[in-house]
User: Fold this.
Amino acid sequence: MQTVKTSKGAETRRSILAMALQLFRERGYEKTTMRMVADAAGVTVSNVYYYFESKEHLVQAFYDSTHVEHLAVCEPMLENEAGLEKRLQIALRTKIETAEPYHGFAGLLFKTAADPKSPLNPFSDASEDVRNRSTDLMARIVDGSKARVPADLRRELPGLLWLYQMAVILFWIHDDSDGRRRTHRLIEKTAGLVTRLISISSAKLMAPLRKSALGLIEDLRQP
Amino acid sequence: MQTVKTSKGAETRRSILAMALQLFRERGYEKTTMRMVADAAGVTVSNVYYYFESKEHLVQAFYDSTHVEHLAVCEPMLENEAGLEKRLQIALRTKIETAEPYHGFAGLLFKTAADPKSPLNPFSDASEDVRNRSTDLMARIVDGSKARVPADLRRELPGLLWLYQMAVILFWIHDDSDGRRRTHRLIEKTAGLVTRLISISSAKLMAPLRKSALGLIEDLRQP
DNA sequence: GTCTATAACCGGATAGAC
DNA sequence: GTCTATCCGGTTATAGAC
Assistant:
Protein backbone atom coordinates (compact mmCIF):
# COMPACT_ATOMS: atom_id res chain seq x y z
CA MET A 1 0.00 0.00 0.00
CA GLN A 2 1.46 3.31 -1.11
CA THR A 3 0.73 6.10 1.29
CA VAL A 4 3.09 8.69 -0.06
CA LYS A 5 0.55 11.47 0.03
CA THR A 6 -1.80 10.73 2.86
CA SER A 7 0.75 9.82 5.48
CA LYS A 8 1.29 11.74 8.68
CA GLY A 9 3.51 14.30 6.99
CA ALA A 10 0.86 15.42 4.59
CA GLU A 11 -1.55 15.82 7.46
CA THR A 12 0.93 17.95 9.40
CA ARG A 13 1.50 20.05 6.33
CA ARG A 14 -2.19 20.56 5.81
CA SER A 15 -2.74 21.57 9.38
CA ILE A 16 0.14 24.05 9.33
CA LEU A 17 -1.23 25.68 6.21
CA ALA A 18 -4.77 25.79 7.53
CA MET A 19 -3.65 27.40 10.77
CA ALA A 20 -1.45 29.87 8.96
CA LEU A 21 -4.27 30.98 6.70
CA GLN A 22 -6.64 31.33 9.61
CA LEU A 23 -4.13 33.45 11.52
CA PHE A 24 -3.37 35.54 8.46
CA ARG A 25 -7.05 36.24 8.04
CA GLU A 26 -7.61 37.02 11.69
CA ARG A 27 -4.53 39.08 12.48
CA GLY A 28 -2.96 39.89 9.15
CA TYR A 29 0.29 38.63 7.72
CA GLU A 30 2.80 40.82 9.50
CA LYS A 31 1.29 40.28 12.91
CA THR A 32 1.29 36.55 12.52
CA THR A 33 4.62 35.09 13.57
CA MET A 34 6.01 31.77 12.54
CA ARG A 35 6.05 30.88 16.22
CA MET A 36 2.30 31.42 16.38
CA VAL A 37 1.72 29.31 13.32
CA ALA A 38 3.82 26.56 14.82
CA ASP A 39 2.02 26.73 18.17
CA ALA A 40 -1.41 26.78 16.59
CA ALA A 41 -0.54 23.74 14.53
CA GLY A 42 1.01 22.03 17.53
CA VAL A 43 4.47 21.72 16.04
CA THR A 44 7.80 23.50 16.35
CA VAL A 45 8.99 26.40 14.27
CA SER A 46 11.61 24.43 12.42
CA ASN A 47 8.97 21.90 11.63
CA VAL A 48 7.04 24.58 9.84
CA TYR A 49 10.20 25.32 7.91
CA TYR A 50 10.49 21.69 7.07
CA TYR A 51 7.27 21.92 5.11
CA PHE A 52 7.45 25.50 3.88
CA GLU A 53 10.62 27.16 2.73
CA SER A 54 9.65 30.52 4.14
CA LYS A 55 6.80 32.55 5.46
CA GLU A 56 6.15 33.82 1.97
CA HIS A 57 5.82 30.30 0.71
CA LEU A 58 2.82 29.89 2.96
CA VAL A 59 1.32 32.69 0.91
CA GLN A 60 2.16 30.92 -2.31
CA ALA A 61 0.23 27.91 -1.06
CA PHE A 62 -2.68 30.16 -0.28
CA TYR A 63 -2.46 31.63 -3.74
CA ASP A 64 -2.82 28.20 -5.29
CA SER A 65 -5.78 27.39 -3.14
CA THR A 66 -7.68 30.56 -4.04
CA HIS A 67 -7.24 29.70 -7.67
CA VAL A 68 -8.85 26.33 -7.16
CA GLU A 69 -11.69 27.93 -5.27
CA HIS A 70 -12.12 30.54 -7.95
CA LEU A 71 -12.47 27.92 -10.63
CA ALA A 72 -15.03 26.00 -8.60
CA VAL A 73 -17.22 29.08 -8.27
CA CYS A 74 -16.59 30.58 -11.67
CA GLU A 75 -16.90 27.73 -14.11
CA PRO A 76 -20.49 26.72 -13.34
CA MET A 77 -21.61 30.32 -13.69
CA LEU A 78 -20.07 30.55 -17.13
CA GLU A 79 -22.14 27.73 -18.48
CA ASN A 80 -25.26 29.70 -19.27
CA GLU A 81 -23.62 32.81 -20.58
CA ALA A 82 -22.32 33.33 -24.12
CA GLY A 83 -21.66 37.08 -24.15
CA LEU A 84 -17.98 37.90 -23.80
CA GLU A 85 -18.59 40.98 -21.70
CA LYS A 86 -20.73 39.09 -19.22
CA ARG A 87 -18.31 36.19 -19.14
CA LEU A 88 -15.44 38.50 -18.32
CA GLN A 89 -17.46 40.13 -15.59
CA ILE A 90 -18.28 36.78 -14.06
CA ALA A 91 -14.66 35.71 -14.08
CA LEU A 92 -13.40 38.88 -12.47
CA ARG A 93 -16.19 39.27 -9.98
CA THR A 94 -15.87 35.74 -8.70
CA LYS A 95 -12.11 36.27 -8.53
CA ILE A 96 -12.31 39.19 -6.15
CA GLU A 97 -15.23 37.73 -4.24
CA THR A 98 -13.53 34.46 -3.48
CA ALA A 99 -10.42 36.38 -2.48
CA GLU A 100 -12.32 38.80 -0.27
CA PRO A 101 -11.59 37.11 3.08
CA TYR A 102 -7.93 37.67 2.37
CA HIS A 103 -8.15 41.23 1.15
CA GLY A 104 -6.31 42.50 4.20
CA PHE A 105 -3.14 40.69 3.38
CA ALA A 106 -3.49 40.29 -0.34
CA GLY A 107 -1.17 43.26 -0.72
CA LEU A 108 1.53 40.91 0.37
CA LEU A 109 0.95 38.96 -2.77
CA PHE A 110 1.62 41.88 -4.98
CA LYS A 111 4.48 42.91 -2.83
CA THR A 112 6.37 39.76 -3.61
CA ALA A 113 4.73 39.80 -6.99
CA ALA A 114 6.76 42.75 -8.04
CA ASP A 115 10.09 41.41 -6.90
CA PRO A 116 11.77 39.78 -9.89
CA LYS A 117 13.94 37.69 -7.60
CA SER A 118 11.05 36.17 -5.71
CA PRO A 119 9.78 32.80 -6.91
CA LEU A 120 6.35 34.05 -5.90
CA ASN A 121 6.21 36.73 -8.52
CA PRO A 122 3.57 35.88 -11.10
CA PHE A 123 5.96 36.33 -14.02
CA SER A 124 8.52 33.91 -12.63
CA ASP A 125 9.17 30.38 -13.81
CA ALA A 126 8.06 29.08 -10.44
CA SER A 127 4.64 30.61 -10.94
CA GLU A 128 4.28 29.25 -14.42
CA ASP A 129 1.83 26.67 -13.29
CA VAL A 130 -0.70 28.94 -11.64
CA ARG A 131 -0.24 31.48 -14.39
CA ASN A 132 -0.97 28.89 -17.05
CA ARG A 133 -4.07 27.73 -15.26
CA SER A 134 -5.32 31.32 -15.04
CA THR A 135 -4.50 31.97 -18.65
CA ASP A 136 -6.31 28.82 -19.64
CA LEU A 137 -9.39 30.06 -17.88
CA MET A 138 -9.22 33.24 -19.93
CA ALA A 139 -8.91 31.17 -23.08
CA ARG A 140 -12.09 29.32 -22.13
CA ILE A 141 -13.81 32.63 -21.42
CA VAL A 142 -13.10 33.73 -24.98
CA ASP A 143 -13.60 30.41 -26.72
CA GLY A 144 -16.88 29.74 -24.97
CA SER A 145 -18.29 33.09 -26.02
CA LYS A 146 -19.97 34.03 -29.23
CA ALA A 147 -17.54 36.91 -29.79
CA ARG A 148 -15.82 37.02 -33.14
CA VAL A 149 -12.11 37.49 -32.72
CA PRO A 150 -9.48 37.72 -35.47
CA ALA A 151 -7.22 34.68 -35.39
CA ASP A 152 -4.03 36.65 -34.75
CA LEU A 153 -5.58 38.40 -31.79
CA ARG A 154 -7.16 35.24 -30.45
CA ARG A 155 -3.77 33.69 -29.98
CA GLU A 156 -2.62 36.51 -27.73
CA LEU A 157 -5.87 37.31 -26.04
CA PRO A 158 -5.67 34.90 -23.10
CA GLY A 159 -2.33 36.33 -22.04
CA LEU A 160 -3.57 39.88 -22.46
CA LEU A 161 -6.70 39.17 -20.46
CA TRP A 162 -4.57 37.64 -17.75
CA LEU A 163 -2.67 40.94 -17.57
CA TYR A 164 -5.98 42.73 -17.46
CA GLN A 165 -7.01 40.56 -14.55
CA MET A 166 -3.75 41.33 -12.75
CA ALA A 167 -4.44 45.03 -13.17
CA VAL A 168 -7.92 44.60 -11.70
CA ILE A 169 -6.47 42.71 -8.77
CA LEU A 170 -3.91 45.44 -8.20
CA PHE A 171 -6.74 47.95 -8.13
CA TRP A 172 -8.71 45.74 -5.77
CA ILE A 173 -5.80 45.50 -3.37
CA HIS A 174 -5.74 49.27 -3.10
CA ASP A 175 -9.51 49.54 -2.88
CA ASP A 176 -10.86 50.16 0.60
CA SER A 177 -14.35 51.26 -0.36
CA ASP A 178 -17.39 49.56 1.18
CA GLY A 179 -18.04 46.20 -0.38
CA ARG A 180 -15.24 46.97 -2.84
CA ARG A 181 -17.72 49.18 -4.65
CA ARG A 182 -15.02 50.81 -6.73
CA THR A 183 -13.54 47.55 -7.93
CA HIS A 184 -16.98 46.32 -8.92
CA ARG A 185 -17.48 49.53 -10.82
CA LEU A 186 -14.13 49.06 -12.50
CA ILE A 187 -15.01 45.54 -13.58
CA GLU A 188 -18.43 46.47 -14.82
CA LYS A 189 -17.09 49.26 -17.03
CA THR A 190 -13.80 47.82 -18.21
CA ALA A 191 -15.31 44.51 -19.22
CA GLY A 192 -17.44 46.46 -21.67
CA LEU A 193 -14.53 48.55 -22.86
CA VAL A 194 -12.35 45.53 -23.41
CA THR A 195 -15.09 43.77 -25.30
CA ARG A 196 -15.67 46.80 -27.48
CA LEU A 197 -11.97 47.19 -28.11
CA ILE A 198 -11.82 43.60 -29.26
CA SER A 199 -14.71 44.04 -31.60
CA ILE A 200 -13.46 47.34 -32.96
CA SER A 201 -10.04 45.87 -33.54
CA SER A 202 -11.58 43.53 -36.10
CA ALA A 203 -12.55 46.47 -38.29
CA LYS A 204 -10.52 46.92 -41.44
CA LEU A 205 -9.60 50.44 -40.45
CA MET A 206 -8.04 49.21 -37.25
CA ALA A 207 -6.09 46.34 -38.73
CA PRO A 208 -2.79 48.27 -38.92
CA LEU A 209 -2.96 49.29 -35.28
CA ARG A 210 -3.89 45.77 -34.25
CA LYS A 211 -1.01 44.36 -36.29
CA SER A 212 1.44 46.76 -34.66
CA ALA A 213 0.26 45.87 -31.23
CA LEU A 214 0.48 42.16 -31.89
CA GLY A 215 3.82 42.63 -33.59
CA LEU A 216 5.04 44.31 -30.45
CA ILE A 217 4.06 41.34 -28.35
CA GLU A 218 5.82 39.05 -30.75
CA ASP A 219 8.96 41.21 -30.63
CA LEU A 220 9.00 41.27 -26.88
CA ARG A 221 8.84 37.53 -26.67
CA GLN A 222 12.32 37.10 -28.10
CA PRO A 223 15.08 37.86 -25.62
CA MET B 1 22.52 82.88 12.56
CA GLN B 2 20.05 80.12 11.64
CA THR B 3 21.74 76.95 10.59
CA VAL B 4 18.77 74.70 10.60
CA LYS B 5 19.54 73.01 7.31
CA THR B 6 23.24 73.16 6.67
CA SER B 7 24.49 72.20 10.07
CA LYS B 8 26.34 69.06 10.92
CA GLY B 9 23.15 67.01 10.97
CA ALA B 10 22.43 67.57 7.32
CA GLU B 11 25.94 66.48 6.47
CA THR B 12 25.55 63.31 8.52
CA ARG B 13 22.27 62.59 6.83
CA ARG B 14 23.80 63.06 3.41
CA SER B 15 26.67 60.79 4.20
CA ILE B 16 24.42 58.05 5.54
CA LEU B 17 22.31 58.15 2.41
CA ALA B 18 25.32 58.18 0.12
CA MET B 19 26.84 55.20 1.86
CA ALA B 20 23.60 53.32 1.87
CA LEU B 21 23.10 53.82 -1.85
CA GLN B 22 26.65 52.78 -2.58
CA LEU B 23 26.24 49.62 -0.54
CA PHE B 24 22.88 48.87 -2.12
CA ARG B 25 24.45 49.18 -5.54
CA GLU B 26 27.46 47.06 -4.65
CA ARG B 27 25.86 44.30 -2.64
CA GLY B 28 22.15 44.64 -3.18
CA TYR B 29 19.51 45.69 -0.71
CA GLU B 30 18.97 42.51 1.24
CA LYS B 31 22.65 41.88 1.80
CA THR B 32 23.25 45.36 3.08
CA THR B 33 22.57 45.55 6.79
CA MET B 34 21.79 48.66 8.74
CA ARG B 35 24.90 47.95 10.78
CA MET B 36 26.99 48.12 7.63
CA VAL B 37 25.41 51.36 6.58
CA ALA B 38 26.11 52.82 9.99
CA ASP B 39 29.72 51.63 9.99
CA ALA B 40 30.37 52.90 6.49
CA ALA B 41 29.01 56.30 7.41
CA GLY B 42 30.96 56.30 10.66
CA VAL B 43 27.91 56.53 12.89
CA THR B 44 25.90 54.18 15.06
CA VAL B 45 22.85 52.23 14.04
CA SER B 46 20.47 54.27 16.10
CA ASN B 47 21.91 57.34 14.47
CA VAL B 48 20.87 56.00 11.11
CA TYR B 49 17.40 55.54 12.56
CA TYR B 50 17.46 59.07 13.82
CA TYR B 51 17.66 60.30 10.23
CA PHE B 52 15.71 57.59 8.46
CA GLU B 53 12.63 55.94 9.87
CA SER B 54 13.46 52.56 8.40
CA LYS B 55 15.58 50.78 5.88
CA GLU B 56 12.83 51.24 3.34
CA HIS B 57 12.90 54.96 3.88
CA LEU B 58 16.45 54.96 2.63
CA VAL B 59 14.98 53.62 -0.57
CA GLN B 60 12.38 56.37 -0.64
CA ALA B 61 15.15 58.93 -0.43
CA PHE B 62 16.87 57.22 -3.31
CA TYR B 63 13.67 57.30 -5.26
CA ASP B 64 13.42 61.06 -4.86
CA SER B 65 16.98 61.53 -5.94
CA THR B 66 16.58 59.50 -9.13
CA HIS B 67 13.63 61.64 -10.04
CA VAL B 68 15.71 64.80 -9.73
CA GLU B 69 18.43 63.24 -11.81
CA HIS B 70 15.95 62.13 -14.41
CA LEU B 71 14.61 65.64 -14.82
CA ALA B 72 18.09 67.06 -15.16
CA VAL B 73 18.87 64.71 -18.01
CA CYS B 74 15.46 64.64 -19.63
CA GLU B 75 14.32 68.26 -19.80
CA PRO B 76 17.20 69.62 -21.91
CA MET B 77 16.72 66.83 -24.42
CA LEU B 78 13.06 67.70 -24.81
CA GLU B 79 13.79 71.22 -25.92
CA ASN B 80 14.43 70.52 -29.55
CA GLU B 81 11.76 67.93 -30.11
CA ALA B 82 8.11 68.65 -30.83
CA GLY B 83 6.85 65.20 -31.85
CA LEU B 84 4.89 63.51 -29.11
CA GLU B 85 6.18 60.05 -29.94
CA LYS B 86 9.79 61.17 -29.77
CA ARG B 87 9.19 63.16 -26.62
CA LEU B 88 7.71 60.13 -24.91
CA GLN B 89 10.63 58.01 -25.98
CA ILE B 90 13.06 60.55 -24.59
CA ALA B 91 11.29 60.68 -21.25
CA LEU B 92 11.14 56.93 -20.85
CA ARG B 93 14.60 56.18 -22.14
CA THR B 94 16.23 58.71 -19.87
CA LYS B 95 14.18 57.31 -17.03
CA ILE B 96 15.50 53.80 -17.32
CA GLU B 97 18.98 54.97 -18.22
CA THR B 98 19.39 57.17 -15.19
CA ALA B 99 18.02 54.36 -13.04
CA GLU B 100 20.28 51.73 -14.58
CA PRO B 101 22.93 51.69 -11.82
CA TYR B 102 20.19 50.65 -9.44
CA HIS B 103 18.53 48.05 -11.61
CA GLY B 104 19.64 45.28 -9.29
CA PHE B 105 17.64 46.49 -6.38
CA ALA B 106 14.94 48.45 -8.17
CA GLY B 107 12.71 45.43 -7.71
CA LEU B 108 12.64 46.37 -4.08
CA LEU B 109 10.99 49.60 -5.05
CA PHE B 110 8.15 47.87 -6.73
CA LYS B 111 7.97 45.39 -3.97
CA THR B 112 7.05 48.00 -1.43
CA ALA B 113 5.38 49.88 -4.22
CA ALA B 114 2.70 47.29 -4.47
CA ASP B 115 1.94 47.12 -0.78
CA PRO B 116 -1.06 49.35 -0.07
CA LYS B 117 0.02 49.77 3.52
CA SER B 118 3.48 51.02 2.70
CA PRO B 119 4.01 54.78 2.56
CA LEU B 120 6.41 54.05 -0.26
CA ASN B 121 3.76 52.79 -2.61
CA PRO B 122 3.41 55.18 -5.51
CA PHE B 123 -0.35 55.50 -5.06
CA SER B 124 -0.09 56.48 -1.41
CA ASP B 125 -0.58 59.93 0.05
CA ALA B 126 3.02 59.93 1.20
CA SER B 127 4.17 59.56 -2.38
CA GLU B 128 1.92 62.28 -3.65
CA ASP B 129 4.80 64.64 -4.04
CA VAL B 130 7.00 62.51 -6.28
CA ARG B 131 3.96 61.32 -8.15
CA ASN B 132 2.85 64.85 -8.86
CA ARG B 133 6.25 65.84 -10.07
CA SER B 134 6.32 62.85 -12.42
CA THR B 135 2.82 63.58 -13.64
CA ASP B 136 3.78 67.19 -14.24
CA LEU B 137 6.60 66.04 -16.43
CA MET B 138 4.13 64.04 -18.49
CA ALA B 139 1.92 67.10 -18.79
CA ARG B 140 4.88 69.05 -20.16
CA ILE B 141 5.64 66.22 -22.57
CA VAL B 142 2.17 66.57 -24.03
CA ASP B 143 1.83 70.32 -23.84
CA GLY B 144 5.20 70.95 -25.37
CA SER B 145 4.40 68.74 -28.33
CA LYS B 146 2.55 69.61 -31.49
CA ALA B 147 0.10 66.75 -30.98
CA ARG B 148 -3.56 67.65 -31.14
CA VAL B 149 -5.41 66.20 -28.20
CA PRO B 150 -9.13 66.53 -27.42
CA ALA B 151 -9.63 68.69 -24.31
CA ASP B 152 -11.34 65.95 -22.29
CA LEU B 153 -8.51 63.53 -22.95
CA ARG B 154 -5.84 66.14 -22.34
CA ARG B 155 -7.00 66.54 -18.78
CA GLU B 156 -6.50 62.86 -18.02
CA LEU B 157 -3.52 62.19 -20.20
CA PRO B 158 -0.75 63.08 -17.75
CA GLY B 159 -2.10 60.62 -15.19
CA LEU B 160 -2.55 57.95 -17.82
CA LEU B 161 0.94 58.45 -19.16
CA TRP B 162 2.28 58.20 -15.64
CA LEU B 163 0.60 54.81 -15.38
CA TYR B 164 2.12 53.89 -18.72
CA GLN B 165 5.52 54.86 -17.36
CA MET B 166 4.97 52.71 -14.28
CA ALA B 167 4.16 49.77 -16.51
CA VAL B 168 7.36 50.33 -18.47
CA ILE B 169 9.34 50.48 -15.26
CA LEU B 170 7.74 47.26 -14.09
CA PHE B 171 8.80 45.64 -17.34
CA TRP B 172 12.30 47.07 -16.98
CA ILE B 173 12.64 45.63 -13.51
CA HIS B 174 11.96 42.18 -14.87
CA ASP B 175 14.17 42.71 -17.90
CA ASP B 176 17.56 41.04 -17.69
CA SER B 177 18.47 41.23 -21.36
CA ASP B 178 21.81 42.81 -22.42
CA GLY B 179 21.68 46.56 -22.25
CA ARG B 180 17.96 46.26 -21.40
CA ARG B 181 17.42 45.61 -25.08
CA ARG B 182 13.88 44.40 -24.49
CA THR B 183 12.82 47.45 -22.53
CA HIS B 184 14.26 49.72 -25.18
CA ARG B 185 12.29 47.79 -27.76
CA LEU B 186 9.17 48.13 -25.63
CA ILE B 187 9.62 51.87 -25.35
CA GLU B 188 10.32 52.32 -29.01
CA LYS B 189 7.20 50.49 -30.05
CA THR B 190 4.72 51.49 -27.40
CA ALA B 191 5.52 55.18 -27.68
CA GLY B 192 4.32 54.97 -31.25
CA LEU B 193 1.27 52.92 -30.31
CA VAL B 194 0.28 55.32 -27.57
CA THR B 195 0.71 58.29 -29.86
CA ARG B 196 -1.38 56.64 -32.54
CA LEU B 197 -4.04 55.70 -30.04
CA ILE B 198 -4.24 59.31 -28.93
CA SER B 199 -4.56 60.57 -32.46
CA ILE B 200 -7.11 57.91 -33.43
CA SER B 201 -9.17 58.68 -30.35
CA SER B 202 -9.79 62.15 -31.72
CA ALA B 203 -11.66 60.70 -34.68
CA LYS B 204 -15.40 61.14 -34.67
CA LEU B 205 -15.93 57.42 -34.98
CA MET B 206 -13.98 56.82 -31.80
CA ALA B 207 -15.60 59.52 -29.70
CA PRO B 208 -18.03 57.15 -27.94
CA LEU B 209 -15.28 54.77 -26.89
CA ARG B 210 -13.14 57.66 -25.74
CA LYS B 211 -16.04 59.09 -23.77
CA SER B 212 -16.68 55.77 -22.08
CA ALA B 213 -13.07 55.40 -21.12
CA LEU B 214 -12.86 58.90 -19.72
CA GLY B 215 -16.19 58.43 -17.97
CA LEU B 216 -14.79 55.36 -16.32
CA ILE B 217 -11.87 57.34 -14.94
CA GLU B 218 -14.25 59.95 -13.66
CA ASP B 219 -16.40 57.28 -12.01
CA LEU B 220 -13.45 55.68 -10.34
CA ARG B 221 -12.34 58.92 -8.83
CA GLN B 222 -15.32 59.11 -6.55
CA PRO B 223 -15.10 56.84 -3.50
C1' DG C 1 16.22 71.01 20.79
C1' DT C 2 19.78 68.31 18.12
C1' DC C 3 22.34 64.49 18.07
C1' DT C 4 24.99 60.00 19.67
C1' DA C 5 25.78 55.66 22.16
C1' DT C 6 24.80 51.10 24.51
C1' DA C 7 22.12 47.36 25.03
C1' DA C 8 18.32 44.84 24.29
C1' DC C 9 14.08 42.97 21.80
C1' DC C 10 11.75 40.39 18.44
C1' DG C 11 10.85 37.47 14.77
C1' DG C 12 12.48 35.02 10.54
C1' DA C 13 15.60 31.55 9.57
C1' DT C 14 19.08 27.56 10.29
C1' DA C 15 22.29 23.77 12.32
C1' DG C 16 22.49 19.66 13.82
C1' DA C 17 21.12 15.97 17.12
C1' DC C 18 17.88 12.28 17.46
C1' DG D 1 10.24 14.13 10.21
C1' DT D 2 10.74 16.33 14.61
C1' DC D 3 13.21 18.65 18.33
C1' DT D 4 16.60 22.07 20.90
C1' DA D 5 19.49 25.71 20.57
C1' DT D 6 21.18 29.52 18.17
C1' DC D 7 22.05 33.01 14.71
C1' DC D 8 21.19 37.18 12.43
C1' DG D 9 19.41 41.56 11.24
C1' DG D 10 15.71 45.19 11.55
C1' DT D 11 14.14 47.89 15.08
C1' DT D 12 13.51 50.16 19.67
C1' DA D 13 14.22 51.74 24.64
C1' DT D 14 16.87 54.34 27.20
C1' DA D 15 20.14 57.38 28.64
C1' DG D 16 22.77 61.05 28.10
C1' DA D 17 26.07 64.60 25.43
C1' DC D 18 26.50 68.89 22.88
Notes: Chain A has two domains: 1-52, 55-221. Residues 55-78 of chain A form the longest helix (24 residues). The radius of gyration of chain A is 20 Å. The mean pLDDT of chain A is 90.
